Amino acid sequence: MTDDRRREVHKELEKELERRRGHFAAARQRRAFIAANYRPLHPNVYTLRDEFVDPRWIELAELARTHRSKDALLEAAAGVVRQRPRGVFAFPALTPRFCELMREELDHFERSDMPRAHPNTMNKNGLLLYELGMYDELLTPLLERYVSPVAAALFDGGEREMANGSDSLDHHRSFTVRYEPEGAGKDVDLAYHFDDAEMTLNVNLGGHFEGGELLFGGLKSDGDEKHSARYPHFHREGIAILHRGSHCHEALPVDSGKRTNLIMWCRSSQVRIRYCAMCGRDKITTSKIE
């Protein structure tokens, strides 16, 4: 890398750092304002309760703690976990009652005049659940008790992706997305992409809709031939899909109704200290070479 290019990269990084500092500060301000001024419709939905979690996921997490390999867990949980395509696992996660309460709470918030931001750079419609105050008592415990043990077992060994972080998930970025038929300012579909996460948990919250299937291709490190095929996943209320963040996918258009999903981008500090979250390059060896 030349000196001019190094200076150019440093300027780009400084600009991005300033953007992120401002982004995080604004999110904290919105969260504080919402905490002080918003009255939840269903306060109980902000705390994880056993009746919110499908009993089959509770049992799956217990099995994952004792069956620490994918094959052993899939055999022990036969009929509960479905894998299709390879590396994309579907299983019952959240109860109909939780999904109903969560949909009503989200609708209630969106009808309010509370401040909000886009859930990510690709979606306009949905909510950042950190700003609603849903992390400490609801989503972080969900990650620790249920997502982490299942991910560690189902993705043991990393297979085709180095340092996938499935056994060291310790934080998350969680949000909802909402898709509706064409209209001003609405998200209809989502282009082919990968997530800024080591693992992604995606749960449909139900409601009435048609279309909106997910299509999975290859991992971001795969060659072009792996990305030419697509494997569909059809949403069902309360059913989670768990996959690597690096597993590329897209969302087809919603034909009618409204599809709302809860997304958890599950992350590993251990991985992110060493590897670039987006390109996967080793920060240490790359810096030594360059």
From TrEMBL:
<dbReference type="GO" id="GO:0031418">
    <property type="term" value="F:L-ascorbic acid binding"/>
</dbReference>
<dbReference type="Pfam" id="PF25238">
    <property type="entry name" value="OGFOD2-like"/>
</dbReference>
<protein>
    <recommendedName>
        <fullName>Fe2OG dioxygenase domain-containing protein</fullName>
    </recommendedName>
</protein>
<keyword id="KW-0479">Metal-binding</keyword>
<dbReference type="InterPro" id="IPR006620">
    <property type="entry name" value="Pro_4_hyd_alph"/>
</dbReference>
<dbReference type="GO" id="GO:0005506">
    <property type="term" value="F:iron ion binding"/>
</dbReference>
<keyword id="KW-0223">Dioxygenase</keyword>
<feature type="domain" description="Fe2OG dioxygenase">
    <location>
        <begin position="170"/>
        <end position="268"/>
    </location>
</feature>
<dbReference type="GO" id="GO:0051213">
    <property type="term" value="F:dioxygenase activity"/>
</dbReference>
<keyword id="KW-0847">Vitamin C</keyword>
<keyword id="KW-0560">Oxidoreductase</keyword>
<keyword id="KW-0408">Iron</keyword>
<dbReference type="InterPro" id="IPR005123">
    <property type="entry name" value="Oxoglu/Fe-dep_dioxygenase_dom"/>
</dbReference>
<dbReference type="GO" id="GO:0016705">
    <property type="term" value="F:oxidoreductase activity, acting on paired donors, with incorporation or reduction of molecular oxygen"/>
</dbReference>
